[in-house]
Design a protein that fits this description.
Blueprint: H1 6-23, H2 27-33, H3 38-47, H4 65-78, H5 80-99, H6 102-114, E1 119-122, E2 138-142, E3 145-156, E4 163-169, E5 181-187, E6 192-194, E7 208-218, H7 231-267, E8 269-270, E9 273-274, H8 279-307, H9 313-338, H10 349-361, H11 366-381
Parallel strand pairs: 1-4
Antiparallel strand pairs: 2-3, 3-7, 4-5, 6-7, 8-9
Helix pairs in contact: 1-4, 4-5, 4-7, 5-6, 5-7, 7-8, 7-9, 7-10, 8-9, 9-10, 9-11
Length: about 375
């Protein structure tokens, strides 16, 4: 928090207190019932969480990526699904801000700042996974606009989103293929169908759906920016803040698991003393705390590079890779400390355990992150 100004510290403090007072007392019941947290989402709107990355001129807060990451961590410390609800929304806001036309900024950003206009990011396809250039969803341009066909899946906010940032092929013959990819800002209408929420291991409460396009018509001005063929590069920039956000989610979930484990290790006694005094448990706690601190440092480094305006795919990839793997391991160590109670739905550890894998997979799998990191390391070596 050392790099936050006074206003940003206040924002983080307000969210942190809200998590303790409002989220934690009810999250277990909401999560187990897989209930959409409407009241909590409304609170997030009132706190300005959906407008964190939107500049003040459009009604948002315009905070730094460092502050955005810190708020994400606090939300995830309470319930990772809440951070997911604002994550892809914020990526689309950033894309509109950086690459959109003046008309697009005026149309979408004020509503996105308040959360009244929710956004969803539609990249993944049922058969495509991490290979975005292999997508089959396409848009054919005619005199009246675009005709869109294809399917996207695992789309967070799909039901409640008013606008979807959809990656499509506007040229299926482009060489290289990424030159034929564009982003369309699509609003719901005939030919756009959202499925029921897909069942998931974790990440409950917030919907993830399949979205199908069947001759869906969109106006020419739905193209993000003014020229086709820039969607892949645009989305790669958007995924930098997206991966910083996923890394922050991982830190938040790990911190929650660690906090629970520390408390439990002081309350639970075995062989005449608190279990933290047994070296095996104490070493687990030491390793957990160290790895969380290291992951948080990588997140802050990535956020600072992003705020500088420089390319941050290396730093964001490192943060996402390390933090998500760390989260998975820390949560499992917390389950070890809790023993059989960690396996019980009456404790939050099992929720953290179900939520943790999403950060390893989401926003580009960790196998893809390693590819990105290696490629960027070579590029920056200058040899």
């Amino acid at each position: 928090m050392a790099h936050l100004n006074e206003h940003e510290r206040l924002i983080v403090d307000v969210v942190s207190q809200w998590v303790d007072d409002k989220v934690k007392p009810q999250v277990r019941d909401l999560e187990h019932a897989d209930i959409y947290p409407a009241d909590l989402i409304d609170d997030m709107k009132q706190m300005g969480v959906f407008g964190l990355v939107v500049p003040e001129e459009y009604g948002g807060s315009g905070v730094s990526a460092t502050c955005y990451a810190a708020v994400t961590e606090e939300l995830s410390r309470g319930w990772m699904s809440l951070a997911g609800a604002m994550g892809s929304h914020s990526v689309i806001a950033k894309l509109v801000l950086e690459f959109g036309t003046d008309r697009q900024r005026d149309r979408y950003l004020p509503g996105m700042a308040t959360g009244e206009t929710r956004a969803a990011m539609a990249l993944t396809e049922p058969g495509g996974g991490s290979d975005l250039q292999a997508m089959t969803t396409h848009a054919v341009r005619d005199a009246d606009g675009y005709v869109v066909n294809g399917t996207k899946t695992w789309i967070t906010n799909a039901i409640r989103a008013a606008v979807l940032g959809v990656m499509v092929k506007t040229s299926r013959s482009a060489d290289p293929p990424h030159r034929g990819i564009s982003i369309l800002l699509l609003e719901k209408g005939p030919g756009l169908t959202v499925s029921r929420p897909l069942p998931k291991l974790g990440y409950k409460g917030v919907e993830s759906c399949e979205v199908a396009f069947d001759d869906h018509r969109a106006p020419l001005e739905s193209l993000l920016g003014v020229e086709e063929g820039h969607g892949f590069a645009q989305m790669m920039r958007g995924l930098e803040i997206g991966r910083i956000q996923v890394a922050s989610r991982a830190v938040g979930v790990a911190q929650a698991a660690f906090d629970d484990a520390v408390r439990y290790s002081q309350e639970r006694h075995a062989f005449g003393k608190p279990i933290w005094e047994h070296q095996a448990i104490g070493h687990h706690l030491a390793n957990m705390a160290t790895r969380i601190a290291a992951a948080r440092g990588l997140v802050m480094q990535a956020a600072e590079v992003y705020d500088s305006g420089k390319r941050a795919d290396l730093e964001a990839g490192m943060a996402k890779l390390f933090a998500s793997e760390m989260c998975k391991d820390v949560v499992f160590d917390a389950m070890r400390i809790f023993g059989a109670y960690g396996f019980s739905p009456e404790f939050d550890i099992e929720r953290y355990y179900r939520d943790a894998p999403l950060m390893v997979i989401g926003e580009g799998t960790n196998e893809i992150q390693r590819n990105i990191i290696a490629r960027e390391l070579i590029r920056r070596s200058g040899i």
